Amino acid sequence: MAPSHHFFWLLCLVDLCLGKIFTAPEQITSRRYDFVVFSMIRSDWSCYVVQPGPFAGCVVASRLSENPNVRVLVIEAGVSDNGTDSAVISTPILAGQGAGTVFDWNYTTTHQVGLNGRAFAYPRGFVMGGSSSLNAMIYQRGPRDDFDRLASVSGDPGWTWDNLQEFIFKNEKHVPAWNNRSDAGEYNPRVHGHGPLLSSLTATPWELDRRVMQTAADHSDEYPFNLDLNSGDGLGVGWIQTSVGNSARSSSSSAYLHPALDSRNNIDLLLHTQVTNLISSGSGSKLTGVQVSQNAHEYEFAATKEVILSAGSVGTPQILMLSGVGPKEELQKFGIKSVVDLPDVGRNLQDQAIVGLQWEAKAETLSGLLNDPAAFSAALAQYAINKTGIAAANSVVNSIAFLRLPDGSPLLKGGDPAAGPHAAHFEFAFLASPLGSKQRVELITGNSPQNTFLANDKQVGPTTGNWVSIAIVVQSPTSRGSINITSSSAFSYPTIDPAFYTTAFDIGTAIHAVKAAQEFFSKPAWDGFIGAPFSDATNLDTDAKIEAYVRKWAMSNKHPTSTARMSKNSDKSGVVGPDLLVKGIRGVRVVDASVLPFAVGGFPQAQVYIIAERAAALIKDAWCLN
Ligand SMILES: Cc1cc2nc3c(=O)[nH]c(=O)nc-3n(C[C@H](O)[C@H](O)[C@H](O)COP(=O)(O)OP(=O)(O)OC[C@H]3O[C@@H](n4cnc5c(N)ncnc54)[C@H](O)[C@@H]3O)c2cc1C
Ligand SMILES: *[C@@H]1O[C@H](CO)[C@@H](O)[C@H](O)[C@H]1NC(C)=O
Ligand SMILES: *[C@@H]1O[C@H](CO)[C@@H](O)[C@H](O)[C@H]1NC(C)=O
Ligand SMILES: *[C@@H]1O[C@H](CO)[C@@H](O)[C@H](O)[C@H]1NC(C)=O
Ligand SMILES: *[C@@H]1O[C@H](CO)[C@@H](O)[C@H](O)[C@H]1NC(C)=O
Ligand SMILES: *[C@@H]1O[C@H](CO)[C@@H](O)[C@H](O)[C@H]1NC(C)=O
């Protein structure tokens, strides 16, 4: 065999072995050079640049690469989710504990006027899968009303709940918990699909959950039991579904990106590489690619068809602004030439504040395990051996209630900010633990997380005894904040202001929700179970005291949306049209939580998966790739 043939086959094999994952842009440049060889087995190289790879990007990239004639490049600023240190993000019981570790961007909010001037950590995934690799894994679609409102504000009936069913079913599949516990009667199989993302119910229901369901049965008028909160009917009390399957976290990376990388040769992933801006054509009417940077070296990738921006509610407005797409005067301050004046880029940030209350429990909860490092280590060791045991499910929070303010509440005088009459104003998540849970991640990583899903880490929980908590979230906030760039460099963090509790509706609803939680636990179903509230939650018996408690302890539920919000093509305001294309310029689409015009009535990850599934179909249609 001639040497050139050896060379050819060697490269093919290396290519297959490597799984097309690069950690430096120049590795791709050199492959491009070798492309002379590969062009025999590959069609054109750079049809698509999909960037960044993360959450929704993984979904879109995976779907687009189903067509063998397109080439997809996924660019991710962060790290692999596949290394030896990944247990903190893949182990279900550690849900949310990757915050403050190598998997986190480590953003901080501005000082929050509505929270006594506090500023705090704002975790965002810095890893394949984005925040879907870091989140608390609750898989809770918004109600039908959310999608129907999206269709109406965008003028596209394709976004209604009914018309999205195909994409809802394409995303997710229900699987049993690791122990194969029967979950009949706790969800509705008919509203679940056949997608790659796995979801499951708890493996270990607690006495707490049994009593939550008993309260619903006893008071079905106030707290109706809802067989499946993912059915489009998002109100009432029900069992939490989490993105967990085969005893591990299911993320957009594990469900979509890894399988595509493992099985297709038309998708590549470039890690550790930050996109610094989008490149526009000479006339400025079209975006033609991206510029990336690693170790102060810059590289460009061309996209012959489109750039898909999935950098998230923080990263997307930042990159758009750095590329001259955003509020003109704001960009001028940093010497950035305006390409399209879109004042809404970075504006309208919505997030959901979360505040916890803790009560002593007179039955076993997860507290025992969390407060016993030896037992907790043993659970993690068992999980490491055969993926079984308490660590193999997200066992902290199994049940939830989505509730509305009473009709006629004075808080609704100015209009109802929920998406419709079947969408919640507030939510309780029932935690079988006190709020503090830091030692769990310390055991794994030696790191102290800056904050967790469960609580404000400054709000110390009890360290002995059994406890339960309620995490209270205002689901339909009216506060709107913003994200601004702070320099013309992509490496300067933007300012993030979720503007929590800056409206009378938001703080009023939080106060109402705390009273509703107290009332919920006073029902007969709780006799003999609920003990005293913890510490400074003891005498919360006036609105003023509740307000002070909320403003002292609330923080972010890490659900930012709306910083590149969708609107009708005919609207001057808004950032993307109903097809997710950025207004005023060709060649770039946004597919992430930033396009949602309103905070989600459920939890955002399901919404983003559904949007990404439809986005992939819209893109395939636009380029005749079906
Ligand atoms: C701690 C935590 C707990 C949460 N809990 C839940 C939950 O239980 N249920 C739920 O539904 N939602 C939860 N969420 C929210 C949910 O994960 C997000 O809504 C979802 O991931 C979508 O976020 P996003 O669109 O903002 O983008 P992300 O998922 O954050 O993805 C953005 C990606 O872009 C990459 N990126 C950004 N800028 C660049 C750049 N310049 N160059 C290259 N790459 C870049 C990032 O590294 C990241 O991978 C939680 C989030 C966090 C952080
Ligand atoms: C995951 O790990 C395997 C084995 O170490 C490796 O071959 C593969 O390239 C890794 N994938 C990513 C995306 O890092
Ligand atoms: C976030 O902080 C952790 C802990 O200090 C650190 O290990 C990690 O590298 C930081 N993330 C980034 C993107 O710098
Ligand atoms: C659960 O069921 C699967 C499929 O039948 C089986 O492989 C697995 O061993 C079972 N696990 C347990 C803990 O029973
Ligand atoms: C997993 O390991 C634990 C602890 O060693 C053991 O008790 C259990 O039986 C094992 N389970 C399976 C399904 O192998
Ligand atoms: C961003 O800039 C706008 C306009 O100058 C300002 O109103 C807003 O408060 C700023 N937000 C942040 C987070 O700095």
TrEMBL record:
UniProt xrefs under InterPro entries: FAD/NAD-bd_sf, GMC_OxRdtase, GMC_OxRdtase_N, GMC_OxRtase_C
Binding site for FAD: 127, 275, 604-605
Name of the featured protein: Aryl-alcohol-oxidase from pleurotus Eryingii
Superkingdom of source: Eukaryota
Similarity section: Belongs to the GMC oxidoreductase family.
Record keyword Oxidoreductase present: no
Domain Glucose-methanol-choline oxidoreductase N-terminal per the UniProt entry, residue ranges: 312-326
Keyword annotations of the record: FAD, Flavoprotein, Signal
Stretch forming the signal peptide: 1-19
Annotated source species: Mycena rosella
MF-aspect GO terms: flavin adenine dinucleotide binding; oxidoreductase activity, acting on CH-OH group of donors
Names of required cofactors: FAD
Listed PROSITE patterns: GMC_OXRED_2
Keyword Signal tagged: yes
